[in-house]
Design a protein that fits this description.
Blueprint lengths: L7 H10 L11 H6 L1 H15 L9 H20 L9 H28 L1 H4 L8 H27 L6 H31 L2 H15 L7 H8 L3 H5 L3 H12 L8 H8 L4 H26 L3 H4 L1
Length: 302
Amino acid sequence: MSTTASGPARRAEADLEALPLAPPAATGLREVVRRRYLLGMLVRNTIKSRYQGTVLGWLWSYLQPAIRFAMFYFLFQVMIGRGSGMENFAIHLFAGMVIVHFFTETFNGGTQSLVQNRSLITKLPVPREMFPVARMLVAAWHTVPMLIILVVPCVLLGWRPDLVGMAAALLGFTLAAALGLALGLLFSVGNVFMRDVGKIAQTLTQFVTFSVPMMYPFTLVDDRFGDPWSGYYLLNPMAEAVLLIQRGFWTGTTSDPEVTAAVHLPDQLFARGLTMTAISIVLLVLAQRVFSRLEARVPERL
């Protein structure tokens, strides 16, 4: 969080810093939920700081993804005809981009959250898990406009929500949220002790874009490498999350959704998604325990 913010952002930060000191707060994600009012203030302050000084303000969160989708549609669908082998390839691409954006912003934002909020951490007796959680909620807030931009062309192409598809999309977001928050907790406390951890997180998220079936279909991986390598590829939880959201939105825009899902999506999609989500939740619990062991040393290192 910037300490040079002005206007509403500065007033919001001043309100947080003006809260009376109290004995050391209990820690843990449950305590973060209990203090949801303070969590809401932190989320609002972070969002205001991002658009501080702009004329359009939060409208940029709609304008930027809309322009991005238009560019991808023109490039992949019109110019180079990538969609000739797959229906509505631009939807395939943008659906993956939505969930990748949510994950990377949760991961990177969570990693930097303790360092960027050092002034609050040293003054307020709050559970420090609140800062990575707040960055996940900010990422979710910025993902909503992207979802709206995704849904509009889907509806125009004949997509209608179905129970299985919505369950797939929800499972994909749950998987990305649990994994992103777990990594955000681990890397945020590591970044306090060694700033190189933040650079490592940024480097890792760059690989995410190319390691998921977003700019290329899963069938390309399966055809090029076959078993068992395509199976190893599916061990990437973000690849699974992308496939789940594509099942929720992209397949419904094609002329025969059932055939599209059978051809372009792997078998056992839900079973693998549920397994990876469970593993991510276990990782989140372990990450929170590691965070709790190290957080007492965070103020002195900041």
